[in-house]
Every structure is written in C-alpha cells, then in structure tokens.
Amino acid sequence: MASAADVTQLIGNTPLLYLRQASERTGCRIFGKAEFMNPGGSVKDRTALGIIRAAEASGELRPGGRIVEGTAGNTGIGLTLLANALGYTSTVVMPISQSREKIDTLELLGADLHLVPATSYSEPGHYIHTAQRLAEKFASSEAAGAVWARQFDNLANMAVHRDTTGEEIWQQTEGEIDGFICAVGTGGTLAGVSQALKAHRESITIGLADPQGASLSHYFNCGELRPSAGSSIMEGIGINHITGNVAQARVDTAFTVTDEEALPLLFDLLQHEGLCLGGSAGVNIAGAVKLAEQLGPGHTIVTILCDYGNRYQSKLFNPAFLHNKGLPVPPWLDI
What stretches in the chain show pLDDT beneath 70? Predict the structure, then answer.
C-alpha cells in the first residue's frame, strides 16, 4: 500500500502552476511553485523540517526537547506541526502585529505562544532576541533541553531549499528555466534555490522582489543597505539586515514592489484563476512580471506561491482595512 509514514513525508514535491494572466501580460511562461500545498500551508514547512533534521543529526535536539523560534508566523506553524508529530515541544515568539489568523492557528496547534510588541531588530525586545533568551532559559531549566531554531542565520534553512525546492524546480522545468525570483523573509528560499539552479546553469537569472521599506533591493543593486521609501502591509517578508542565509544568495537583479502593484495581482488571481494566496505571493508574482519585462518575451520564469490568503483574511481581503491604508480594493470585495 502506498502511504506516507508521517506528516514529514507530505512536505515538498509541490507542483508548478502556470500563472496565466502574468504570462499573457509579459509574453513569458511564468510559473508559481505551489508551496501552499505543504501540510502546514506554507513554504516554511521545508525550513522547519530542514532545521529539525539538522538539529537531530548534530545531537543538539534530543528526544522530548523543546524547539524555540522567533517568527512572523509560518515557520512557527511548521515547527509546531512537526514538533507535535515528532515528540517535541514548540515555543513560538511572534510580533503581536501579525494577522489574527496566524495567531489563532498557532493557538489551535498547541504552540507555547509568546506575543511581543513589534519593534526594530536593533531593540532587545525584538521577537528574534526574545526567542534567543527563551531558548537559553529552557536549555538550562528543562531535562530534555531546548534549541533555538535561528531560521534567519541557520544555514540548514538554505540547505533544505537547495536540496529540495531548487532541485524540484530544475526537474519540473526539465532545465528549461531562464529566471527565478522571490521575496526574502529569512533568505533561505532565495539562497537555496539560487545555489541549486546556478549549479546546473550559471546563466539562469536570479532576482529578488522586495516590498517597500526593505533594504535588500538597494543592497543587491548598489552594494549598500538602504531601505526603499514607504512601507508595506505584507507579512513575513522585507528585511533590513544581511542574514546568514541572505549572505549565501546568488542574486543578479533586484526590484522593489509596491503594495499597489502586488495587491491587484492577488485579487485578479483569486477572481480569474481560482487561487486565494497571501501577500508574499503577490510580491513574488509582481517581481516575476518585472523580471519577465527585463528579460523580454519568450523566457521561462519561476517564483514561489508561499501560502494561502485565508491566513491574512482580516487584512488583505478586508475592504475596511485596505481603505484605511489607502490601498486598492477590488469591486467584488468592496462593501
């Protein structure tokens, strides 16, 4: 009988999905890797599995141990699902500014959830620094110990995307790929996929799609960390420092994507192609359109469809929220 032994075997091998409107608009073939089909509903399931397996292999994560992480939500969801399945405990630190749906999901899954104020990375109360302190406390106080997942600087993040996501894309496109682009939360997906694809063919163009207010677009284009003007409502992406994973990325070009560019793509994708996706997917598709326009018609480009839109329903698909932010609202959603 063909079956999966546990939830870990449901992670990965997600299909490529042809994005009709983006492709027709640019004259290119644009595909999205359907990472929302992972069991935890996002691309971060891969990150969670890679980090856990590396910690097990090193002996740092022992049976019955605790996994602690600071996250915008999706990595915490993935880690908690896997902790439940593999006999660990999960502690998640998350900014209280994240969507209500992600908070509810983590509570449903039984995570030991700590919500903290949203602050800059330089402040000690930032969710990443808070997670580090909690991990150190649990490591010294609990019999089975604890590990800090460190998704931003833990290169197991990059490695799992190099070995799985990147290789899957190469196989699924049968090597007929000209460009790959995605946004950065930790940098693991971009770093891993870029390394995998360029190992197969150096000429593949790797792009970065940055939301407004983030610094990586200027860094990769000009060599200096400088935030772009404005801000973004998109969660889980857009950073202003070089993480350990970002440092491994092979990036050829970078673009800043505004919410005004990304949101209509999300709304049209739902109305005309039957996909309800999160904000990072909108930024990624907008970035793929920009990369396609740079490369010209006839090219094949792949991006990441990170998670479902119902994880952000109270924001992205809330007309009152969008109106208050001065952002576009599709007629079918407007009150």
Answer: none
Residue 33 a catalytic site member: no
- Give the torsion sign (CA, 167, 173, 178, 179): negative
0.90 cut: is pTM over it? yes
Nearest to 211 by CA among 242, 173, 255, 244: 255
- Give the span between the Cα atoms of 155 and 209, in whole angstroms: 21
Residues 6+ apart with CB under 8 A from 64: 87, 88, 89, 143, 144
CA dihedral (252, 307, 11, 112) positive or negative? positive
Helix (H) or strand (E) holding 92: strand 89-95
* Long-range interactions of 122-130: CB distance < 8 A, separation 24+: 126/70, 127/70, 127/71, 127/93, 127/94, 127/95, 128/70, 128/93, 128/152, 129/70, 130/70, 130/93
Tokens coding 102: 């992600």
- Which of the following is catalytic: 33, 44, 290, 315? 44
Distance CA 128, CA 139 (A): 16
Instruction: Give the three-state DSSP class for 42.
Output: strand
Phi, then psi, of 14 in degrees rounded to 5: -75, 150
pLDDT of 2: 86
pLDDT at residue 121, rounded to an integer = 85
Q: Which residue has the tokens 């546990």?
A: 6
Question: What pLDDT, on the 0 to 100 scale, is given for residue 319?
Answer: 95
- Residue type present at position 263: L
Structure token digits, residue 175: 């090597």
Q: In the prediction, which pLDDT does 214 show?
A: 97
Comparing CA positions, the residue from 180, 173, 166 lying closest to residue 253 is: 180
How much is the pLDDT for 334?
Answer: 82
**Residue 139 CB coordination number (10 Å):** 17
DSSP string covering 225-243: --PPSS----SS---SS--
Amino acid at 219: Y
